[in-house]
C-alpha cells in the first residue's frame, strides 16, 4: 500500500519541506511539501533527486572489508565492528587518543544524531586529530565571531524581511539556496527587497545567477578585504559612521579607524579592480540607507584573508549602525540551548591546542584538513595512525587529493561511514554503510539559530534503513561498547596513572557493564531533554519532542528576529574591534603578493544547481542534459590571450598542480578570472559519476602550511594564481 509521509530535505541549509510516497518501505518519489510554512511548495532539483540516491544501485548497503587484492568483500556487522574495535583499542593502548583521528564531512552537519555521538566519541577518547569540511568552508567565520564577540557561535543573520540594502559578498543563494542563513525561499526574499524599493548589491568576480538579478559589483578575486577597508575608510573619513552605535556597542574602534585610514578606494583599486568612485558611492549608500545588512558566504571565506573579511563585514554593519538592529544583521534565537552547552563542554573552542604540522589553532576542536596528510606522515608523539572519515570525501574536497590518498594508505586503520564508495574511502580498510537522511529521524540542528523566521522541525524516518545500513550514532555506540568506553565519558579520567590507556579501558568496561543495564541513552532522549531545557527562562516557547511530533510540517516560533541582543551574544555586551591578531593580519595584508606574471589569471569556484559538492553526480536525474559536463568559465578576452576556443580542452596550471578541462567562454566572469566547479573528476564506486568525467580542481590548491589562511588555517580555494593554455 502506498503512503504519503511528510519530512524535510537535509541536503542544504534551506531544509525545504518534502512529501515522500512510500510503498512497502521503499521510497517511490519525493515532491515539495505545499504545507511547509517556510518553503511553501518550493524545492530545488536536488531535493527531488534524493530519490535517486535513496534507491541507487551503487549505494553501499552492507559492511565492506578490504581484501588482500585491494577489492572489497562483504562482511557481517559483527565481523567488521569486532575487528575495528580490536585494532582501534590497540592503537589507543599503544599511542593514546592523540593518535586517532576523525574527518567529518558536510552532510554530518545535517544529522543531529551523527554530530552528537561523534562528539561523544571525541570526548570519550580525547581525540585531537579532528578534521572537517569546515576548514574548506566556514571556520574563519567562527574565528571572526570568537574575536568580535568572544563566542564562536555568535553569527549574525541578514534581516532579509526588513532590510533596505543587502550587501552580499561572495554568495550565490539563487543556486546555493543560502548558507549561514536558513530561508528556503531566499530568492523571493531578495526580490521582495527590491520590490519594496530597496537594493541588493552582489560583490562577486562572476556575474552569477544572483548578481544577474540584482546589482553587480565585479570585485577581483580575493579583493574583499581591501574593498571592505575602503568602504570603512570612506565612512570614517566623511563622518558617516554611526558614532552612537559605535559607543554603545563596541570597544577599540580607534584601531579600526586608524587601519582604514590608509585604504582609500584609490589605494585599493588595483586589488579590488573597482572604480574608486563606485566604491565611494557604495560606502555612502550603505551609511545613509534606512537600514543595511552585510552578508557573506564561501566567496568571503575561501581567499587568503577570510577571517579578516568576516571580521570586517560585521564591523561594517556595526559602524553603519546596522548590527543587532532590525533591517540589519540580527542574532538568531536557538530554541535548543546549544550555545550554552557547547560553551560549557568546551566544544566552541578556538586555539585551545595547536596542530603539530603548521602550528594551527583548533577551531571548534578541529584542525585544518589540509594538513591531515602531513599529520599522517610526520613521525613523533601524536602521529595520526588511525582515521575515521564520515560523510566526507576529502580526496576531492581538500587541496592536493593525491597527497592525501597516498598518505591514507600509510595508516594503521582507515574506516569510513558513507553511502557510497567514493574517491576517499576506496582506500579504506572498512566502508560501513550508513542510513540516508530519509532513513533517520532528525532536527535541523545546525540551522536553528540561522533561520530568518524562528523555526523548528522534527521528522521521523521516512523509510526503514535499506539493506544493513545503520545510523552513524549507532555505529559509534556499538564501537564504544566493544572497546569498553562510554560516549561523552572521558576514558582517561577513569585512569589517573602511568598506564592510562589500558587501565582506563578496564574501568571503562566496568562502566559499560553498568551502562548496559540502564535504559540506553539515545539521541532522541538527548533531544527531548535539550528541548525542555532550552525553553527554561529564555523567552522562547516551551518545546518537547512530543509537541514537535504533533507538527509534522514544522513549527514557526515567532514572526521574525529582533535586535537588542548583544548583551546575550557578546561577552560583556560589546563587540571588540581591536583584536590583536586582526591587527597583525592587517599588517600582513599590506605585504600580500600582487600580480604574478607566470600565473596571470585567478581561479575561483563555482556551484551548480544540479551538483552538490562531490556526492550527487551519481543521480541520473541531475546528470541529464547537454550541459552536464565539467568546464572552465573563462572571459573571451582571456581565452583569446591564452589561445583557446570554446569547448577546447585546456591545461590549467598553478604553482601546485595542473588539470585538464574544456573551456566555456563567457563574459560572466570578469577579465583575469576563471571559474571551475569543485567535486568533479570521479573515480569511485559510482557508475554515473565516473562516466561524467571532469577533473578535481583542488589539485590546483596548496596544502603547504605557509599557504593556508593564517588565523583559521583554512584552505585557499579562491583567487589561486593560474595559467591557461591549450591542452
Ligand atoms: N546547488 C548547490 N547548492 C549548494 C551546494 C552545492 O554544491 N550545490 N553546496 C552547499 C554548501 S556545502 C555550501 S557551503 C553553500 C555555499 O553557498 P554560497 O557561498 O552561496 O555558494 P557559492 O555558489 O559557492 O557562492 C560563492 C560565490 O563567491 C564567489 N567568489 C569566489 N571568489 C570570490 C572572492 O574572492 N570574492 C567574492 N566577493 N566572491 C567570490 C563565487 O563566484 C560564488 O558566486 O552552498 C550549499 N548549497
Ligand atoms: N575548490 C573548492 N573546494 C571546495 C569548495 C569550494 O567551494 N571550492 N567547497 C568546500 C565546501 S563548502 C564543502 S562543505 C566541502 C565538502 O566536502 P566533503 O564534506 O568532504 O565532501 P562531500 O562532497 O560533501 O561528500 C560527502 C560524502 O558524504 C556522503 N554522504 C551523504 N549523505 C550522508 C549521510 O547521511 N551519512 C553519511 N555517513 N554519509 C553521507 C556522500 O556519499 C559523500 O561521499 O567541499 C569543499 N571544497
Ligand atoms: S534547496 Fe536545499 S533543502 Fe531545498 S530541496 Fe534543494 S537541496 Fe534540499
Ligand atoms: Mo559547504
TrEMBL record:
Keywords, sorted A to Z: Iron, Iron-sulfur, Metal-binding, Oxidoreductase
Residue ranges constituting the 4Fe-4S Mo/W bis-MGD-type domain according to the UniProt record: 2-58
Name of one Pfam family that matches: Molydop_binding
SUPFAM superfamilies referenced in this protein's UniProt entry, alphabetically: ADC-like, Formate dehydrogenase/DMSO reductase, domains 1-3
Gene3D superfamilies the record matches: 2.40.40.20, 3.40.50.740, ADC-like domains, Dimethylsulfoxide Reductase, domain 2
Major enzyme class: oxidoreductase
Alphabetized GO MF terms: formate dehydrogenase (NAD+) activity
Keyword Oxidoreductase among UniProt keywords: yes
Enzyme Commission (EC) number: 1.17.1.9
Family the entry assigns: Belongs to the prokaryotic molybdopterin-containing oxidoreductase family.
Protein name per Swiss-Prot or TrEMBL: Formate dehydrogenase
Amino acid at each position: 500500500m502506498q503512503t504519503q509521509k511528510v519530512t524535510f530535505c537535509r541536503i542544504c541549509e534551506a531544509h525545504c519541506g518534502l512529501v515522500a510516497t512510500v510503498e512497502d518501505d521503499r521510497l517511490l518519489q519525493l515532491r515539495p511539501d505545499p504545507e511547509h510554512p517556510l518553503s511553501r511548495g518550493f524545492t530545488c532539483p536536488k531535493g527531488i533527486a534524493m530519490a535517486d540516491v535513496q534507491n541507487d544501485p551503487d549505494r553501499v548497503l552492507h559492511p565492506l572489508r578490504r581484501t588482500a587484492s585491494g577489492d572489497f568483500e562483504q562482511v557481517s556487522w559483527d565481523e567488521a565492528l569486532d575487528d575495528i574495535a580490536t585494532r582501534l583499542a590497540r592503537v589507543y593502548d599503544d599511542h593514546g587518543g592523540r593518535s586517532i583521528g576523525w574527518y567529518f564531512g558536510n552532510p554530518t552537519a545535517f544529522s543531529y544524531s551523527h554530530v552528537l555521538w561523534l562528539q561523544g566519541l571525541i570526548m570519550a577518547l580525547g581525540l585531537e586529530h579532528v578534521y572537517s569540511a569546515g576548514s574548506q568552508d566556514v571556520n574563519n567565520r567562527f574565528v571572526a565571531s570568537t574575536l568580535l564577540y568572544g563566542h564562536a557561535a555568535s553569527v549574525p543573520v541578514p534581516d532579509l524581511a526588513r532590510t533596505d540594502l543587502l550587501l552580499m559578498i561572495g554568495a550565490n543563494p539563487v543556486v546555493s539556496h543560502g548558507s549561514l542563513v536558513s530561508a528556503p525561499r531566499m530568492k523571493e526574499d531578495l526580490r521582495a527587497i527590491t520590490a519594496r524599493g530597496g537594493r541588493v548589491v552582489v560583490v562577486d568576480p562572476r556575474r552569477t545567477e544572483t548578481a544577474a538579478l540584482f546589482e553587480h559589483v565585479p570585485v577581483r578575486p580575493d579583493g574583499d578585504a581591501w574593498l571592505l577597508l575602503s568602504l570603512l575608510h570612506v565612512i570614517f573619513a566623511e563622518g558617516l559612521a554611526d558614532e552612537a552605535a559605535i559607543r554603545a556597542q563596541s570597544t577599540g574602534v580607534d584601531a579600526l579607524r586608524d587601519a582604514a585610514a590608509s585604504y582609500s578606494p584609490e589605494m585599493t583599486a588595483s586589488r579590488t579592480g573597482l572604480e574608486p568612485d563606485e566604491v565611494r558611492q557604495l560606502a555612502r549608500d550603505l551609511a545613509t540607507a534606512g537600514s543595511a545588512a552585510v552578508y557573506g558566504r564561501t566567496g568571503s571565506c575561501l581567499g587568503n584573508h577570510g577571517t579578516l573579511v568576516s571580521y570586517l563585514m560585521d564591523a561594517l554593519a556595526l559602524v553603519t549602525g546596522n548590527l543587532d538592529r532590525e533591517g540589519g544583521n540580527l542574532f538568531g534565537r536557538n530554541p535548543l540551548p546549544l550555545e550554552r552547552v557547547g560553551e560549557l563542554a568546551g566544544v566552541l573552542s578556538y586555539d585551545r591546542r595547536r596542530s603539530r604540522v603548521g602550528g594551527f589553532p583548533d577551531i571548534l576542536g578541529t584542525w585544518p584538513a589540509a594538513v591531515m596528510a602531513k599529520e599522517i606522515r610526520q613521525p613523533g608523539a601524536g602521529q595520526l595512525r588511525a582515521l575515521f572519515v564520515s560523510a566526507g570525501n576529502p580526496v576531492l574536497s581538500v587541496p592536493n587529493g593525491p597527497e592525501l590518498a597516498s598518505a591514507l594508505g600509510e595508516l594503521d586503520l582507515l574506516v569510513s561511514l558513507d553511502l557510497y564508495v567514493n574517491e576517499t574511502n576506496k582506500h579504506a580498510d572498512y566502508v560501513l554503510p550508513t542510513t540516508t537522511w530519509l532513513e533517520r529521524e532528525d532536527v535541523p540542528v545546525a540551522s536553528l539559530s540561522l533561520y530568518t523566521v524562528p523555526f523548528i522541525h522534527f521528522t521521523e524516518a521516512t523509510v526503514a534503513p535499506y539493506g544493513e545500513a545503520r545510523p552513524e550514532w549507532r555505529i559509534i555506540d556499538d564501537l564504544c561498547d566493544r572497546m569498553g568506553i562510554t560516549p561523552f565519558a572521558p576514558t582517561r579520567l577513569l585512569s589517573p596513572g602511568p598506564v592510562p590507556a589500558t587501565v582506563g579501558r578496564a574501568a571503562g568496561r566496568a562502566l559499560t557493564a553498568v551502562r548496559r543495564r540502564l535504559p540506553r541513552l539515545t539521541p532522541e532522549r538527548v533531544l527531548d531533554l535539550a528541548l525542555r531545557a532550552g525553553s527554561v527562562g529564555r523567552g522562547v516557547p516551551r518545546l518537547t519532542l512530543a509537541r514537535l511530533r504533533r507538527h509534522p510540517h514544522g513549527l514557526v516560533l515567532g514572526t521574525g528576529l529582533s535586535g537588542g541582543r548583544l548583551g546575550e551574544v557578546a561577552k560583556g555586551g560589546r563587540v571588540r574591534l581591536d583584536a590583536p591578531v586582526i591587527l597583525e593580519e592587517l599588517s600582513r595584508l599590506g605585504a600580500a603578493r600582487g600580480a604574478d606574471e607566470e600565473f596571470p589569471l585567478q581561479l575561483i569556484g563555482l556551484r551548480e544547481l544540479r551538483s552538490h559538492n562531490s556526492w550527487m553526480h551519481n543521480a541520473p536525474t541531475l546528470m541529464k542534459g547537454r550541459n552536464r559536463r565539467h568546464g572552465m568559465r573563462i572571459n573571451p578576452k582571456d581565452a583569446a590571450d591564452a589561445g583557446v576556443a570554446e569547448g577546447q580542452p585546456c591545461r590549467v596550471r598553478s604553482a601546485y598542480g595542473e588539470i585538464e578541462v574544456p573551456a566555456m567562454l563567457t563574459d560572466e566572469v570578469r577579465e583575469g578570472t576563471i571559474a571551475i566547479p569543485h567535486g568533479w573528476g570521479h573515480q569511485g564506486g559510482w557508475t554515473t559519476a565516473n562516466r561524467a568525467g571532469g577533473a578535481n580542481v583542488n589539485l590546483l590548491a596548496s596544502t603547504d602550511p605557509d599557504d593556508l589562511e593564517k588565523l583559521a588555517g583554512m584552505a585557499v580555494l579562491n583567487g589561486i594564481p593560474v595559467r591557461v593554455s591549450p591542452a
